[in-house]
Amino acid sequence: MNNKAIDILGILNKCSVFSTLTASELRELAGKARVEHFTERTLLTLRGETPEHIRYVVSGSIDLVLSTSEGGYSSLPMFEGRWATWLGCFSAEPLVHDLWSSSNATCVALPCRDVKKAVANNPDGLREVIEQVGDWTRFLTGWMLSFAAYGPEKRLVYLLLLASSDACAITQEGQPTALTQTHISQFGFGSRQKVSRLLRKLAEKDLVEMRYGVVIIPSRARLQAYIADDNLPASRQSGKAKNLA
């Protein structure tokens, strides 16, 4: 894949943050972009640093990684069609995690300073940035709260609901998920063997399908029904389902 094969202007046109820019402003911003190809896993930004670029993932993934000297490790992947990350671009604070590319990844990188300049006097663009950051804040808040609320099996169902929501769109109903068993294990589920056992239990309940190493969510409604608290009034159950949509 070469630079000409990637429609940078088309990528910017599809992004809601840049939707109100003029044609000339979009062309100017596209001229600042560069296409990056990674054949092996590559460290892009170290924890404690401020990113110089925001990247659109064309293929592969960019992973938000937190590791410790004691061997602790957690990773949140940003897959094809996502930007990594709006918060990293617009926040003045340094990252609390590392940014890594996956192997065999292709990205479009835009300098953060040019992105911020492009939308600095654009209220609609800034509102879209807030929406993008808000979507991921809801994802991470829900995930954090799920650790105290659910056991491993329901927590995995909750993760799949969050990942397949319109806001996150990491995966979609009826489509093979980009979340591998390795990815899921890094969300605090332990080894891949433990994840495999949990997925098999969910498959026995017809909540997921496992095909050739991929996971498919046949119905988000089934996941919603499984995770709903039977002790809640129906109106509150409906509210919970709506919040995850």
Overview of this protein structure:
The structure is a single chain. The chain has 245 residues and is of the alpha+beta class. It folds into two domains: 3-125, Sandwich (Jelly Rolls); 150-244, Arc Repressor Mutant, subunit A (Orthogonal Bundle), CATH 1.10.10.10. Helices cover 44% and strands 20% of the residues. The strands form three sheets. The chain has a four-stranded antiparallel beta sheet with strand order 1-8-3-6. Strand 9 (209-211) and strand 10 (214-216) form a beta hairpin. Helix 5 packs antiparallel against helix 6 (152-163) and helix 6 packs across helix 8 (192-204). It is globular, with a radius of gyration of 19 Å. The two termini are 36 Å apart.
Q: Which features characterize this protein?
A:
single chain, 245 residues, Jelly Rolls, Arc Repressor Mutant, subunit A, 2 domains, four-stranded antiparallel sheet, 10 strands
Number of strands: 10
Order of helices and strands: HHEEEEEEHEEHHHHHEEHH
Average residue-wise pLDDT: 86
- Tell me the helix content: 40-55%
Global geometry: globular
Strand sequence of the main sheet, in spatial order? Answer: 1-8-3-6
- At CATH level 2, the architecture of the largest domain is Sandwich
Distance between the ends: 36 Å
Tell me the fraction of residues in β-strands, as a range: 15-25%
- The total domain count is 2
CATH homologous superfamily identity of the largest domain: Jelly Rolls
CATH class of the largest domain: Mainly Beta
* Sheet of most strands: 4 strands, antiparallel
Instruction: Provide the CATH topology of the largest domain.
Output: Jelly Rolls
Number of helices: 10
